Amino acid sequence: MSLPPVIDPQALDNLRALNPGDNDEFLRELAAIFLEDTPKRITELDASLAAGDSGIFTRAAHSIKGSAANLGAMRLRAAADKLEHYSRKEGLTAVDEMVAAIKAEFTQAAAELKRLIGNG
Questions:
Q1: By the 8 A CB rule, do 54 and 48 touch?
Q2: Alpha helix positions (H), 19-117
Q3: Number of domains into which the chain is organized
Q4: Residue 16 domain-assigned?
């Protein structure tokens, strides 16, 4: 089974269709928010893990999942979904590898978004 693309082109097309003819301004604005907000949520993961706060940790994973899904960052969405469900069920034990996966997937998604829409 092959991995999904880092960024689903259909998701970007769907976002473009919401504001046709704007030369991707709407899409670039959404991408900028994603690129600014997601590192904050990743910092929340690290801080809440260190503090042992599973509620904030799980909410941060959920936020990452939602914003990744909106922009078609499907691998990041899947990693955040896995982390969210795991932390809800198991708490914060043994999540380090999943947090590392989120960081790696975000790095890839950010680079691909910038490449695809010229945001940076």
A1: yes
A2: 25-51, 54-71, 74-90, 96-117
A3: 1
A4: no
3-state secondary structure of 101: helix
pTM of the model: 0.93
**Tens digits of residue pLDDT in 20-52:** 999 999 999 999 999 999 999 999 999 999 999
User: What 3-state class would DSSP assign to 16?
Assistant: helix
Residue 82 is encoded by which pair of tokens? 């896995």
The per-residue pLDDT for range 60-118, each reduced to its tens digit, is 999 999 999 999 999 999 999 999 999 999 999 999 999 999 999 999 999 999 998 87
**Cα gap 49→61, rounded to integer Å:** 11
CATH of the domain at 49: 1.20.120.160
Amino acid found at 102: I
Structure-block tokens of residue 25: 């301004």
